[in-house]
Specification:
Shape: elongated
Helix content: over 70%
Order of helices and strands: HHHHH
Oligomer: single chain
Number of strands: 0
Radius of gyration: 26 Å
Largest sheet: none
Strand content: under 5%
Distance between the termini: 57 Å
């Protein structure tokens, strides 16, 4: 990877972190606002809540327009996380042995019979 590509990657990371931090601040503000409903005026709550949600949607749209590959990157990160969670407890050596012995049905049946008896 060239220095220029690394610089672009770092610039994109900072840009993404700005959006993430801003959305997090808006989300925490809306959460605090939601918990304070009994203590504030309903009209104030609805005005601030709708503006906060609208700001979050505008920021999300701006991020998607500014970073066209953002959805692809998020989907890839989700697939990697899902794979790690799903395959984390898999006994690879056992699976290899099953695949190898499954190619020879008579050996596989003999081993299965002896293992279960």
């Amino acid at each position: 990877m060239t220095i220029f590509a690394l610089r672009e990657s770092r610039k994109q990371f900072r840009f993404e972190m700005f959006f993430f931090a801003t959305l997090s601040i808006v989300a925490v503000f809306v959460l605090v606002l939601g918990f304070s409903i009994p203590y504030i005026d309903d009209r104030f709550f609805y005005v601030v809540y709708t503006n906060g949600i609208g700001l979050a949607l505008v920021l999300t749209l701006a991020a998607l327009i500014s970073i066209p590959d953002l959805m692809r990157d998020l989907a890839e990160a989700g697939r990697i996380k899902y794979s790690a969670a799903t395959l984390g407890g898999l006994d690879v050596e056992e699976r290899k042995r099953v695949v190898v012995t499954a190619s020879r049905p008579s050996e596989y049946l003999t081993q299965s019979f002896h293992r279960h008896s």
